[in-house]
């Protein structure tokens, strides 16, 4: 039969008809109205408006309104007293021009398969195929790579995905691939890569994702709070599980304490943060440090504490090891340079008297150090993390309420007292069923690599690097599969990514939006959003406030499928469907997760209702009995019975383990290392004078919700991602508020809309991470990004040989007013769909389905 409307093209027929390809146009607003779109809404079409549908998200729980099958409004869940402004953009997440609607295959990959012209990746030309054909191609590629190369050639990765305990893309991808064969895994993450490696060596725990001292205790006991690169008010809007936002009540109480003078807050940051602004511009002491010079300031504070005998020698003697090995470096006995306030002033831009006064204030009474994550995302980020602990140890308040240090205060509602409740299980990526291809022969290459160095593996296969005491031989990757993640957002130096992408034979992306990762993929599979399926989620993260039902809001849009159904059908192609599903469908899995929670509850004296009662009547259950907690209290009270997880059981100011690794960029105690590039007189600053921050955004979660026009209308400038710049820097460049500017360095260039603001120190600019990449020349290396993705500009190097983490905040740029032609932003449309006027012929099935 002829098929002029639905554009199905098999590879066999495609090759025969290649000369007849024409451009169908953008998969954008024009396709919101055809019968294919209307069919997707058929389940609720014509019905009266449905209001109050309860579900959850990374941005909070909501009550959804549906009209004619469309999700049209999101109202805050009545139990969320501090809802995020971002929930206004959630309907756009479902209905927007960037939704992936059908399985698609890149044009040249359809012609030539893994032998395609990879320089065409990113040209945005795709062919629509059927689900059967797409999954056949997926399976055939897995087979080819395993048989041709073995497990060292395949890498899979997931990221923030969507909320929900069952529908998690990471677990489903991991299980499906594990049932087929082994692959290369990754370690670490982009958020806390340096801190999560160094801190277990120093205090025996990762620290970054753990509960912090309860806010009521901090408010009762702290006299000084030091916010070191931490912006809690901004970042607590979105959490891993559905947030309850209860932590904001404590920010209100903190604001009152600050206003009354009961608590002094000091913000060490080149920027007046949202938290600083909220607590009061004139109430918070701002130490506007030069970027990347935090360690010199820390060393100078430590030097002042020691030289003025303000440190707690008893705590250092009884709870720490290695201060005596660190002290000669601090005093300059090794290199002739005491790390005092006068020395630090030249680097930090903070006068010596201010540094000494800060040390005295911190030592004068109970001080809580609240450390963020952005500072450790720079070259040698391990050193800052280590020095936070050293300072807290010298103050001697670790384990006391309202004292010590913490690295997770801005995340997952940390500090909200945890309730006595249950934590639901989910869909695990592990399986006991053996894979079809059981080879564990990685041919001498490493089976696990640091996530932030995966581009090195693609570009430099066989290279040997150090990583946390191990030697890693980077594997020769040929195929990557991504589900629920966007490497073009989270990895640095996009032009280097594009260079590496060209060396891969096949890239498969499973997502619900046409992110850059999907545009540069070969096979793209449309997944549902969390609003098109049923699930369960925790309500509140560290607070463990309760459990929420995530009810399906609308039918799956167009041909989108749940990740569960995608991977189930993939596993069917190699006779592992039963092992993947365990004989359960969506509702069956939700019942199992609920039953496992009920069993867990019995051991804690918690009685859950039946699943049917919860799902059909209650929808939300709240736990009782919040428990107060002090981080490291047990260790302080009895270090012998409650030792830390370090070799000594104590805080390791000097680590013999690290010293024995003999790394020149991360030695046995914390040190100051100059950066490869640094503003304010540092290396490279004569050519590129501005430091670029790429911190978490105000109106998105990473790149999620960048597709929301509703939200972009609140922050975009001239249709571009904003770049924030100090008035002095703007004036020197003839830049006014609202101008379109070019931000550039030797690694790339982007356009952005200027926001001139005195919240940013001279020499500091900011573009929020997560802005979608929008090249003016498709997949060309060194294209101009028309929208403003900062990772075009960031530097792709490891923090050190220890963590090998991201160094995104070691980035210098220049900015100029843009006077060239302004092309339309096209990042938020779908691909150019190629049409072949041909008869649809199903792909040949070279395998057996069970």
Explain this structure.
The protein has 850 residues and is α/β, with parallel strands linked by helices. The chain has three domains: 222 residues, Rossmann fold (3-Layer(aba) Sandwich), CATH 3.40.50; 249 residues, Dimethylsulfoxide Reductase, domain 2 (3-Layer(aba) Sandwich); 128 residues, Barwin-like endoglucanases (Beta Barrel), CATH 2.40.40.20. Helices cover 29% and strands 17% of the residues. The chain is built from 29 helices and 34 strands. The strands form nine sheets. An eight-stranded mixed beta sheet has the order 1-34-6-5-21-20-19-7. The two termini are 29 Å apart. The N terminus and C terminus are likely disordered. It is an enzyme of class 1 (oxidoreductase). Reduces trimethylamine-N-oxide (TMAO) into trimethylamine; an anaerobic reaction coupled to energy-yielding reactions.
Under the CATH scheme, which architecture of the largest domain would be assigned? 3-Layer(aba) Sandwich
CATH topology of the largest domain: Dimethylsulfoxide Reductase, domain 2
- Annotation field: number of helices: 29
Mean residue pLDDT? 93
Number of distinct beta strands? 34
Derived from helix and strand composition plus strand pairing, the structural class reads alpha/beta
Strand order of the largest sheet: 1-34-6-5-21-20-19-7
Sum up the overall morphology in one term: globular
GO molecular function: electron transfer activity; molybdenum ion binding; molybdopterin cofactor binding; trimethylamine-N-oxide reductase (cytochrome c) activity
Function: Reduces trimethylamine-N-oxide (TMAO) into trimethylamine; an anaerobic reaction coupled to energy-yielding reactions.
Domain Molybdopterin oxidoreductase: 99-572
EC number: 1.7.2.3
